[in-house]
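Morning run. Coffee first, then this:
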Amino acid sequence: MNETKIYQASEFTDAYVIDTIKEVSKSLEEKGYDSVNQIVGYLMSDDPGYISNHKDARKKLTKIDRTRILEVIIRKITN
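And here it is:
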């Protein structure tokens, strides 16, 4: 049976945040960085210097509010 699925807007924005973190993580690892340490450093300090410019990683991550990133991460692990 084909039923219409209703999506919440938050599902799309959460997916966008997760995809962006994955892209940034991959970019950081390509440059030889420990992506977890770099992203955590950025989230804790608000210093974009933790994120490389490689493949526009810094621009991609800093477009998203840090609080929003943390909300998505916490929601993901608590569901």
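The longest helix spans residues 9-30. Good start to the day.
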